[in-house]
Amino acid sequence: MSSDIVDTLTSLPAYTIFHVTWLLHSLHRPLFLVSVLCLLSHPSAALSKCKLFYSTFLYLAFSQDKKFKIPTEDASQYFGTEFGGTASAVSASSFKSKQIIFIRHGESTWNDTFNPGGRNIIVFILLYIPNMIKALVTEWYFFISGKESESWFFDSALSTKGVRQIEALRKFLRKEKMRLGSGHFMDEREELAVKYLLNVNNNSGGGGGGGGGNSSSSSMVVSSNLRRAISTAAIGLSDRFALQHKDDDILLLDSLQEISFNPDALSILPPHGTAHPTWCDTNIPGVPVDKFSKLIDTQYHSGNKALNSTGLIRLNQFVADIFSPKCDKDVIIAVGHSLFFRSFFQMFLPRSVEHVSKKKKLVNGGTVMLTLGEVMLTDGTKVYMIDPNSVVVVYGGFGKHHKK
């Protein structure tokens, strides 16, 4: 009996392929004609998608985005011992620091299709072909229906699981907000991080709103120009945006774009264009769908990363952005991607420091706070380093090192 069940399960992929192939063969002509008519009715959207297909080929064939090495020079020699460096003294006028909170986006539709995630590997293999068919059909529908800003594979949005992961972060922050001022936090830095994330006034206690309307923000939110990161910021921090602090929005930084040559890491948002809500952005508590696009600041979004760009270039650009007039707050909440964040820790933590963040990815929805320092050398060169004692996990964690 058990062998019959096993035989049935193992035959499912071949059974599915046969019937899908038969169905496509029977319907390919009418489908082709319908597709052509639909494309002709949306020529500009079709052209944009064709350009995206072409760009994908170029990136897959020629991109050097992941082909870089972390510099061997250790910046700790320029930072004082109180910051985790080795220098005996650093001029106060040449030193600056900012608090940064990283949030990794939730699982994307690309991850849902190609990566097992937390799923049983056997179940993933058995469902791989059906899931791939679903993804291809969805992409085909977006293509022929003129949905220029929607895609399953390109600049992939959050999956259903990804939305649940980020809603869990939002619920965690809401629960932690009720504990503010209670003295029950094991680490005062965690309490401070929750205040920054929710933009709660330091003087407000548990459940305090921190004001709204014209009150100023003590922190700011920046995001990668990819849709899954934008949605993560809007959903995970929706309680913050519901307060409607003056000028509190999500600023897109191209320097945060993921380090990868896959199509899911290519931005489909036009330069300085309007960020339209995806399927998961239409029912965000505190962020009405008609206000979503106004929440996203695209003034610095210049389009997709250049073909000759590398992760190293954007890592250096990101730290420069953090200390530039673009980011005029002392606390920067950056929503982005796993490879980018891991490379960031590898590059800016002292070389002698062993830390899990250098080897493991931040989990989906994972949130971590750190202090980044900048020192200007006598020749005008600026160097950057993370204070190794400042890294604190707020939610989630790295790899299997989770914090609930």
Task: Describe this protein with a few key phrases.
nine-stranded mixed sheet, alpha/beta, 41% helix, globular, 404 residues
Q: What does this protein structure show overall?
A:
Strands 1, 2, 3, 4, 5, 6, 7, 8 and 9 form a nine-stranded mixed sheet that branches. It is globular, with a radius of gyration of 23 Å. The chain has helices at residues 2-41, 43-62, 109-114, 121-144, 160-177, 188-198, 227-236, 238-242, 289-295, 311-322, 338-348, and strands at 95-104, 220-223, 250-252, 296-297, 331-336, 367-376, 382-386, 392-398, 401-403. It has 404 residues and is of the alpha/beta class. Mean pLDDT is 86; it is low at 202-211. Helices cover 41% and strands 12% of the residues. It is built from eleven helices and nine strands.
In round numbers, the mean pLDDT is: 86
Q: Strand portion, in percent?
A: 5-15%
Order of helices and strands: HHEHHHHEHHEHEHEHEEEE
The strand count comes to 9
For this structure, the quaternary state is single chain
The level of helicity is 40-55%
How does the helix and strand content classify structurally? alpha/beta
Total of helices: 11
Mass-distribution shape: globular
Biggest sheet record: 9 strands, mixed
N/C terminus separation: 42 Å
Radius of gyration in whole Å, from Cα?
A: 23 Å
The low-pLDDT segments are: 202-211
